[in-house]
Structure formats: structure tokens, C-alpha cells
Amino acid sequence: MDPTPAPAGPRFVAYYRVSTDKQGRSGLGLEAQREAVARHAAGRGGTVAAAFEEVESGRRGDRPQLALALAECRARRAVLLIAKLDRLARDAHFLLGLEKAGVEFVAADMPHANRLTVGVMALVAEEEARMTSARTKAALAAARARGVRLGNPRLRPGDATTAADARAAWSAGAARRAAEVAPYLDAARRAGATTLQQLADALTARGVRTPRGGERWMPQQVRRVLDRVAR
């Protein structure tokens, strides 16, 4: 008698996302996502039945490829597979879309996350966005009240007044950036981070860019942000 065939592994529908048109054209970021998805599917003994790629257009509510991916999941009774959830954890609209989709999903970097987890993350992301907006507006208002001319003034040699304005504008920009980072530091502290290194690691894990646009935070950078926020 023939042995009973082994049950088929799970079917996945992959969803990839990049931030800019340039990344979409060059494949920057997509290859790593594809590799993560392939590893996860293979580890579960499953197959990727379909894949969808989204280039974020700047219109945060515009996720046509995600909608197609979710529809494909329903049609195939498949699981939505995302390469990285941590870098998307600040996008409340994306997270709420997942939470309300009514389909099973898994993130390769956070395989134990579920719809309840994502719903909580979405609420945190919305609150962080609200706090960031409020802090940024307050920092700009304070700079204007001090007479700071925001922007990039053109310096003329020997013009001390213009140079002072440029320094003030730079300071205002640094304060604005610190205000944007502060909510993530607050969230990391609530999660148990206490040292500068732990806070730096938390910012790096969340994908928060450094003041110079880098991906990895150092403790001294965190210290400078904390000092500015405390002023």
C-alpha cells in the first residue's frame, strides 16, 4: 500500500515594499527582501505562490499592490508573507491595513507577530506620529519666536549677522530633528531600554535615520539628541 502523501506546506503571497522610485528601479532593498522571504518559506516547507512589489509614492494611503496581495491571499487561501515588519512599524496606515485585512500574515523578521500585535503597533505608530508633529511644530514656533530665520541663508564673507542666522537655522534644524527622534526614545525606554547603547540599538532596529542619514546609531549621537530635547 502506498504511503500517505505528506501534507502540502503553506502557500504564501509575498509583499515587498521600497521607499522611492529610484530604489524600485535599481532593485535596492528588494533583493534582501526576496532572500528573507525565500528563506522563511523554505524553512516552513512552503511555496511562494505570488509576489507583489510596492513603490511608496508619498501618498501614504496609496497601497494598490498591498490590496492586490491581500485579495490574492483570500483567493488562494494563502498567507501574506512580508520580509521585514520592523521597518514598517511606524506606518500606521500600513499596519492598520494588515490588522483589518482578515487574512493570516507572517513577517520573516517577526514570525510570532499576529493581528493583535500589529493592531497595538499601529496605535503606537499613530501616537508617535502625533507626538512628532506636535514637537516639530513647537520647536519651529520657538525658533521663530527667537527671531530665527529658518531655511538656508546665503552667507557673504564678513557678514557676521548672516553667519549668526545660519548658525541659528542649523540649531533649529537640529532641534527639530531631535524632536522627531524623541518619541522613539520614549518608546524604547518604556520597553525597558536604560543605557545609551540600548537606546541606540533600539533606534537602529526601528530604522530611524541618524542626523546624517545613517542607519546605525552610536551612543554619543543618542546623548546629543537627549541633550537637545532637554533644553
TrEMBL record:
In terms of superkingdom, the source organism counts as Bacteria
Q: Which organism is it from?
A: Roseicella frigidaeris
Q: Using the record, list the residue span of the signal peptide; answer none if the entry has no such feature.
A: none
Report keywords, A-Z.
DNA recombination, DNA-binding
Question: Top-down, what is the taxonomic lineage of the species of origin?
Answer: Bacteria, Pseudomonadati, Pseudomonadota, Alphaproteobacteria, Acetobacterales
InterPro entries reported for this sequence: Resolv_N, Resolvase-like_N_sf, SSR_resolvase
Entry annotated with the keyword DNA-binding: yes
Where does the record place the Resolvase/invertase-type recombinase catalytic domain?
11-147
What protein does this entry describe? Answer: Resolvase
CDD domains in the cross-refs: Ser_Recombinase (cd00338)
Q: Which Gene3D superfamilies match?
A: Resolvase, N-terminal catalytic domain (3.40.50.1390)
MF (Gene Ontology): DNA binding; DNA strand exchange activity
